[in-house]
Amino acid sequence: MMRIMRWISALVMLFAVTACDSELVNKLPGADPWLDGNPGQFASFLANADEGPVVMINLLKFREQSLDGDGTGAEAYARYGELAGPFVEKHGGKLIWAGAATQHLVGDIAYDWDAVLLVSWPKRQNLIDLGGDEAYEAIAHHRLNGLERTMLIALDEQASFLSPAAN
Fold it and tell me: Do 121 and 54 meet the contact criterion of CB atoms below 8 Å apart?
């Protein structure tokens, strides 16, 4: 419930700002852009709530130690995954791939990741509904205890730019 209230406050501030300045929204009190995103990102996602299907790519970097002191960040995230799985399924999500991020081929190595998950959703609204599930909120602290940072990226199927016929 606290995270929902934080988002409501953040959205109110967003509407008071005429342009989404990521430096401003990333400095909202109590907000961590690596774990919470920012109100502009969330508002954009909400505006497209009925679009789908969507696959969310989850890039995960674990803490050395869990914030609650109960093992490593990876262990805390594993607890979250075990508890969150039924909620993901309840809201229409399906884990379609999970793996370790083992080697950089291209990209800034300053932003290394430990794991990658691909989760499919019928619509963006299904993921939004998960975030508003009070029972889910009661277990989400394990996610925060385990993660140093994360990126969630919505992937829409648009293979036309890959097709030679489209050129």
Answer: yes
CA dihedral 55, 2, 47, 120 (to 10 degrees): 10
Q: Please report, as a single letter, which amino acid is at residue 3.
A: R
pLDDT digits (tens, 9 = 90+) for 49-92: 888 899 999 999 999 999 999 999 999 999 999 999 999 999 99
H or E element at residue 57: strand 54-62
The verdict on pTM exceeding 0.85 is: no
Could you write out the DSSP letters of every residue in 71-136? Answer: S-HHHHHHHHHHHHHHHHHHTT-EEEEEEE----SSS-TTS--SEEEEEEESSHHHHHHHHT-HHH
Token pair 């969150």 is at which residue? 84
161: pLDDT confidence band, cut at 50, 70 and 90? low
Question: 76 vs 23, which has greater pLDDT?
Answer: 76
- Per the structure block, which two tokens stand in for 13? 């501030």
Packing angle, helices 124-131 and 39-47, rounded to 10: 130
